[in-house]
Amino acid sequence: MTVIFGIVVFTMPIWLQPFGAAYPDLMQRFAIYGIFAIGFNILFGLTGYLSFGHAAFLGVGSYTAVWSFKLLSLNIIPAIICSTLMAGVFAVVIGYVSLRRSGIYFSILTLAFAQMCYNLAYSVLTPITNGETGLRVLRDDPRIIDAMFGSTTVAVPRAEIFGIAITGMTGFWACAVCLMIAFYVALRITRSPFGMMLRGIKSNQTRMSYVGVNTRPYTLVAFIISGMYAGLAGGLLAIVDPLAGAERMQWTASGEVVLMTILGGAGTLLGPFVGAVIIKYFENIFSSLGDATLADAFSFLPPSVEHVVVTIVSPFVGEGWHLTLGVLFMIVVIFLPGGLVEGFRRIGRLFRSKER
Amino acid sequence: MDAILLQILNGLDKGGAYALIALGLTLTFGTLGVVNFAHGALFMLGAFCVVGIQQVLTISERVRDPSITFFEAYIEQPYLVSWFGDTGAAIIDWVIPISLLAAIPIMLLVGILMERGLIRFFYKRPHAEQILVTFGLAIVLAEIVKAWFGANPIPVQPPEIVRGSADIGAWLGIDANLSYPWWRLIYLVSSFVIIGGVFAFLNLTTYGMVVRAGMADRETVQLLGIDIQRRFTVVFGLAAVVAGLAGALYTGIQPPNYNIGMEFLVLSFVVVVVGGMGSLPGAVAAGFLLGMLQSFASLNEVKSLLPGIDQVVIYLVAVIVLLTRPRGLLGRKGVMEA
User: Fold this and answer.
1) Distance (Å) of CA A36 to CA A64, A232, A239, B41, B93
2) How far is B182 from chain A (nearest CA, A)?
3) Does a structural domain hold residue B162?
4) Is residue B169 part of a domain?
5) CB-closest option in B121, B131, B272 to A50
6) What is the pLDDT of residues B314-327, one digit of tens each?
């Protein structure tokens, strides 16, 4: 399964061509948000805890990566390691408190924590986050490790890996490798005794307690792993776009990863990645549409009908992309709780039953 | 002393807003067992009832300005003023009180539509799915309002007679220079009235008695032959009205924008958790308590001691309460103690 997934990921530049999506910036986002969604799925799809605060870890990962570029080295490896570990530390703290409760309480607490991080990043923590301006890499930052190895001051500081600049397709390959590793680890977790314990907790935590299992360490570890995935995604975001801002911590980002996971299929391995790709793809399309584009698209219609159609559609595109997201969210939750992967399975089952 | 008194009033004011929203949340959760993440959006819709009605009342035409004679000058004059003169101007001035009356049936309708159209299909589904579908609904409602009214806050003026400040210092026989905005005092009193009304309805009417029984044990009430579904619809509508009125009244304090609902929702969920899930008195008590705490945390003296405390005080209290008293301040035994 990992091999097939790897082939699919590394041939993205080829099979995404027909969809007009085979360019580095968009494919990077597929990979990054795929990692984010896969990590979230470990907590929600596997363990059954719905967190609305995972954007906080994305933000922490971004800030940490930029600080790594500022203080340590422009090499992405320290940045990735620091992002993941720092998000893990945050996850220990937040998870220890939040996981005292389950169900609604857990969702509320994680949402509150994320909102708190967002507020603080804009106010009291400005020395660390640079507030609304956003944290960026400067030419005269210390960069201790680079200095140790004798690197001279660079004209424009860019992320690199042992001398190779991370731009364009190189950025995508870096993200793709991380995605492969992330997917493989998630696969191993899912198919391990630990993963089975998590599924048991999702199924019926009370019964697990009666059997004699202390479920809290398992849920905490799942939360930490999930947070580290989000931190990794945040770090990669900073690598391909080295400006860390607090807006990545906002509740809409948390909601978005929930939607990716649910759309694709919570509890499945491929679902979160599929959901992330679909959402980022359509976001890329819908966000760039405007009234003029809509008028062009519907110009084959009679003028009065065209006007009506454009009026109806325009709130859903451009700045209104979130409206589409919200409607999609509701439709999936109402009609397809298992997500697209479940839908595909049903279709497959239908054909197999016909054959039989 | 003066600062303390003002902070107390500020805290009560803020607490009133929290208590109203938390009251609605607790109604829907305690009675229906439904977690409504779109409740903040109802607050926002209430606020935009006022904005919408204001925009309708101020539809205007260009008329000749009679005070300028040496060239033709035009001013925008609302039709209401053209047709009814000073009476029309007075109507526009009183847009918020008028909108409050309109908001009650509008929000009741919105609540009923939401319950009949969406919520009732989720009574037997997991809480996670209830959260998710209402989360999506909140996004949809916010984006619709944004599409219609734009992203900028839209100011709404209270009636002119209450735009100034009340001389509360003179009332209380202390510092004669102490004053507090009229509209905030009105907001405070209004929140007391609404809370009192909800409690009276639930405790003094047979209908409310049935609702409370439904909160305690839904199945038994159904076994007694009472149509619980209709009461669910009414209670959901009532919760929507409470949130809508809170939002409508708040327009005089803060110009509403499409995001205002989510800001209040997060805080109000924390209020519900602190007060205890399913506890109406708990929601109200926690609302005022947290409002007071946030108000005092906003003092410069406090902020200089603990930077950022005003941003996080509510969450810290929530964490402490959940760790030390999982049921909440006034939570009922057995309700969501997981």
Assistant:
1) 16, 8, 15, 28, 51
2) 30
3) no
4) no
5) B131
6) 777 877 777 777 66
Q: Are the C-beta atoms of residues A219 and A110 closer than 8 Å to each other?
A: no
Q: Are the beta carbons of B308 and A320 separated by less than 8 Å?
A: no
Query: Which range of residues forms the domain containing residue B281?
Result: 1-53+95-150+181-324
Report ipTM for this prediction: 0.74
Residues A329, B139: C-beta atoms closer than 8 Å = yes
E strands in chain A: 135-136, 160-161, 164-165, 243-244
Q: CATH code at B31?
A: 1.10.3470
DSSP string, B175-193: -TT--EEHHHHHHHHHHHH
What is residue A224's predicted lDDT score, i.e. its pLDDT? 92
Q: Helix (H, G, I), strand (E, B), or coil: what is residue A17?
A: helix
Exposed/middle/buried for B261, CB within 10 Å: 0-12, 13-18, 19+? buried
One digit per residue, pLDDT tens: chain A, 356 residues?
777 777 777 777 777 777 766 777 788 888 888 889 889 988 888 888 888 888 888 888 888 887 877 777 777 778 788 888 888 998 898 888 888 777 777 887 788 788 778 877 777 777 777 777 776 766 666 666 666 666 656 666 666 666 666 666 777 888 888 888 888 888 898 889 988 888 888 888 888 888 888 888 888 999 999 999 989 888 888 777 766 666 667 767 777 888 888 888 777 788 888 888 888 888 787 777 766 677 777 777 777 777 777 777 766 776 677 777 778 778 877 777 777 777 777 778 887 766 54
For B189, list phi and psi in degrees, rounded to 5.
Answer: -65, -40
Interface of B with A (CB under 8 A): 29, 35, 118, 121, 127-129, 131-133, 135-140, 142-144, 146-147, 151, 262, 266, 269-270, 272-273, 277, 307-308, 311-312, 315, 318-319, 322-323, 326, 336, 338
A139 Cα to chain B: minimum distance (Å): 31
| Residue B225, in any domain of the structure | yes
Could you give the CA distance from residue A274 to residue A284 in angstroms, rounded to a whole number?
Answer: 15
Residue recorded with tokens 């996670």: B128
Listed in sequence order, the residues at least 6 apart from A153 whose beta carbon sits closer than 8 Å to its beta carbon are: A139, A140
A255: chain B residues, CB-CB within 8 Å: 135, 139
Which residue in this structure is represented by tokens 């001691």?
B305
Number of domains comprising chain B = 1
Report whether A30 contacts A276 (CB < 8 A). yes
Radius of gyration of the CA atoms of chain A, in A: 22
Choosing among A47, A260, A329, A335, which should be mutated to test the B contact, i.e. which has the most B CBs within 10 A? A329
Q: Does B155 map to a domain?
A: no
